[in-house]
Amino acid sequence: MCKTDSCFRNKFYTPVILLLLLCVSIPMMHSCADKAEIPSFLRIDSIAVDSTSYDSTGSVSSKIKFAWVYVDENLQGVYQLPFRVPIIKDGTANLKIYAGVQENGLSDLALRYPFYQRDEMIVTFTPGDTLTVLPHVRYKKGLKIPYLEDFNVNFAQTIYKDQGGGHFDYLMDQAKAFEGNGCGYFYLGQNEPALICTTKVVYTPKNMSAYMIEFNYRNNCDFLVGLRTSQTGETILGVRARPDWNKFYMNITPAVDALPGTDLQIFFIVPQDTLVPIQEVFIDNLKLIY
Description:
By secondary structure, the protein is mainly beta. It has helices spanning 5-37, 54-57, 253-258; strands spanning 40-44, 48-49, 66-71, 74-80, 83-87, 91-102, 110-112, 119-125, 130-132, 136-137, 147-149, 159-163, 167-171, 183-188, 195-199, 202-203, 212-219, 223-228, 233-239, 242-251, 263-270, 279-289. Strands 11, 13, 14, 17, 20 and 22 form a six-stranded antiparallel beta sheet that branches.
């Protein structure tokens, strides 16, 4: 056993030194951890749809509500626009944005739209800072649009009244159209039977990856949209009244695959509503895509 003063001092100082080192190292460890956990932020307010060729894709009007966000191939999440979210990243990264819409007009059904190309860019994230980007998407190359009606001319109509009351017109009035020269106009007077209108026949192959119908609309009453072939038909869904122009993305993939035949028509039904004396539905930029 050591009985010298130096031995006693060594025994005393060693734990003290270790304690001091520990006190110094703990703040340093916290500092490093805090720095590593400080996120960068990504902000996206909207997603733009760029024009390609109007003759091939028609209007680029859109209602993009969601974004799928990938950083260096890793999915960060699906977010509703506009948003600001934390991203654990410091430095350069590959950012990919996929545009999403409300499937069949339902707010709780987010659909990564199959016909929009993603936007991809190289960005730099800085912890504590907010990176704001405006993604741009466009229709994919190679898609098919066998039916496209923008209602800008009324001498080659592709929608006709099929049966029932009221009437359907190509309304050539820029003030009432969503865009362009005109729009489609469904009218049903009081106590008239339901109005049914049908598009021309378009031949559509089976078993493609997806089929969608797009259109702009405003209406003071509910209406129905469906599909039919020469063999059978099916009402797909109802569209609620909207006083202002809105955009609709309708997923018809299950119906196209289930209906026998490829001679496809879109039909619209304005059912009688006794609470609305004069029922009106305006549509624009109607297209079927696969």
